Protein backbone atom coordinates (compact mmCIF):
# COMPACT_ATOMS: atom_id res chain seq x y z
CA UNK A 1 0.00 0.00 0.00
CA UNK A 2 1.32 3.42 -0.93
CA UNK A 3 0.07 6.91 -0.20
CA UNK A 4 0.28 9.31 -3.12
CA UNK A 5 -0.20 12.95 -2.18
CA UNK A 6 -0.42 15.87 -4.60
CA UNK A 7 -0.06 19.06 -2.51
CA UNK A 8 -1.73 21.05 -5.32
CA UNK A 9 -4.93 19.00 -5.03
CA UNK A 10 -6.12 19.23 -1.43
CA UNK A 11 -9.66 18.82 -0.12
CA UNK A 12 -11.45 18.14 3.15
CA UNK A 13 -13.91 15.31 3.65
CA UNK A 14 -16.38 15.61 6.50
CA UNK A 15 -19.14 13.27 7.60
CA UNK A 16 -22.48 15.03 7.98
CA UNK A 17 -25.36 13.48 9.93
CA UNK A 18 -28.13 12.35 7.62
CA UNK A 19 -30.60 14.51 9.57
CA UNK A 20 -28.59 17.62 8.65
CA UNK A 21 -27.80 16.64 5.08
CA UNK A 22 -30.94 18.27 3.66
CA UNK A 23 -29.43 21.68 4.49
CA UNK A 24 -26.16 21.08 2.57
CA UNK A 25 -26.12 22.51 -0.95
CA UNK A 26 -23.54 22.27 -3.70
CA UNK A 27 -21.04 25.17 -3.80
CA UNK A 28 -22.11 26.32 -0.32
CA UNK A 29 -19.33 28.37 1.30
CA UNK A 30 -17.42 26.64 4.10
CA UNK A 31 -15.18 28.01 6.83
CA UNK A 32 -12.44 25.57 7.82
CA UNK A 33 -10.38 25.61 11.01
CA UNK A 34 -7.24 23.42 10.99
CA UNK A 35 -5.87 22.31 14.36
CA UNK A 36 -2.29 22.73 13.10
CA UNK A 37 -2.93 26.44 12.38
CA UNK A 38 -5.14 27.70 15.23
CA UNK A 39 -4.87 31.38 14.25
CA UNK A 40 -5.67 30.84 10.56
CA UNK A 41 -9.03 30.46 8.83
CA UNK A 42 -9.29 28.59 5.55
CA UNK A 43 -12.19 28.87 3.12
CA UNK A 44 -13.72 26.45 0.66
CA UNK A 45 -16.91 25.25 -1.01
CA UNK A 46 -19.00 22.09 -0.94
CA UNK A 47 -17.83 20.11 -3.95
CA UNK A 48 -19.78 16.87 -3.61
CA UNK A 49 -22.07 14.79 -1.43
CA UNK A 50 -21.48 11.05 -1.08
CA UNK A 51 -23.94 8.54 -2.47
CA UNK A 52 -24.13 6.32 0.62
CA UNK A 53 -23.52 6.38 4.35
CA UNK A 54 -20.16 5.60 5.90
CA UNK A 55 -21.56 2.44 7.53
CA UNK A 56 -21.88 0.87 4.08
CA UNK A 57 -18.08 0.86 3.82
CA UNK A 58 -17.35 -0.64 7.24
CA UNK A 59 -14.89 -3.53 7.16
CA UNK A 60 -16.89 -5.32 9.83
CA UNK A 61 -20.58 -4.46 9.48
CA UNK A 62 -22.66 -4.67 12.62
CA UNK A 63 -25.01 -7.60 12.02
CA UNK A 64 -28.08 -7.85 14.20
CA UNK A 65 -29.17 -11.51 14.40
CA UNK A 66 -31.65 -10.89 17.23
CA UNK A 67 -33.96 -8.88 14.98
CA UNK A 68 -33.99 -5.89 17.35
CA UNK A 69 -33.61 -2.59 15.54
CA UNK A 70 -31.78 0.37 17.03
CA UNK A 71 -32.06 3.63 15.13
CA UNK A 72 -28.66 5.28 14.75
CA UNK A 73 -28.18 8.49 12.81
CA UNK A 74 -25.89 7.66 9.89
CA UNK A 75 -23.30 9.97 8.37
CA UNK A 76 -22.76 10.81 4.71
CA UNK A 77 -19.37 12.00 3.41
CA UNK A 78 -19.24 15.54 2.00
CA UNK A 79 -16.22 16.65 -0.06
CA UNK A 80 -15.10 20.27 0.41
CA UNK A 81 -12.64 22.07 -1.84
CA UNK A 82 -10.21 24.26 0.05
CA UNK A 83 -8.31 27.38 -0.94
CA UNK A 84 -4.69 26.80 0.14
CA UNK A 85 -2.75 29.58 1.85
CA UNK A 86 0.91 30.29 1.13
CA UNK A 87 3.16 29.02 3.89
CA UNK A 88 0.39 26.89 5.42
CA UNK A 89 0.76 23.43 3.85
CA UNK A 90 -2.06 20.99 4.46
CA UNK A 91 -1.34 17.27 4.80
CA UNK A 92 -3.52 14.17 4.61
CA UNK A 93 -5.01 13.25 7.98
CA UNK A 94 -4.90 16.70 9.59
CA UNK A 95 -7.75 17.38 12.00
CA UNK A 96 -10.17 20.14 10.99
CA UNK A 97 -13.50 21.63 12.00
CA UNK A 98 -15.86 22.87 9.30
CA UNK A 99 -18.76 25.31 9.31
CA UNK A 100 -20.98 24.94 6.24
CA UNK A 101 -23.06 28.03 5.50
CA UNK A 102 -26.73 27.06 5.26
CA UNK A 103 -28.87 29.31 3.04
CA UNK A 104 -31.94 30.82 4.69
CA UNK A 105 -35.26 29.61 3.29
Can you offer a commentary on this structure?
It is a single chain. The chain is an all-beta fold and 105 residues long. It is built from no helices and five strands. The chain has a five-stranded antiparallel beta sheet, with no helix packed on it. The protein is globular, with a radius of gyration of 16 Å.
What multimeric state do the chains show?
single chain
Please report which band the strand proportion falls in: under 5%, 5-15%, 15-25%, 25-35%, 35-45% or over 45%. Answer: 25-35%
Order of helices and strands: EEEEE
Secondary structure: number of strands? 5
Strand line-up in the sheet with most strands: 1-4-3-2-5
- Structural class by helix and strand composition: mainly beta
Mean pLDDT value = 83
**What is the CA-CA span between the terminal residues?**
46 Å
Helix content: under 10%
Number of helices: 0
Mind telling me the C-alpha Rg?
16 Å
Largest beta sheet, briefly?
5 strands, antiparallel
Summarize the structure.
This protein is mostly beta strands. It is built from no helices and five strands. It has strands spanning 11-17, 29-34, 41-49, 75-82, 96-100.
Topology of this structure?
Elements: E1 11-17, E2 29-34, E3 41-49, E4 75-82, E5 96-100
Antiparallel strand pairs: 1-4, 2-3, 2-5, 3-4
List keywords for this structure.
mainly beta; 105 residues
Amino acid sequence: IALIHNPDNVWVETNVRETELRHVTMNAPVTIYVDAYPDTTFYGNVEGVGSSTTSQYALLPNPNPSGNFTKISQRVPVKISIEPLAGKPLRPGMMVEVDIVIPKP
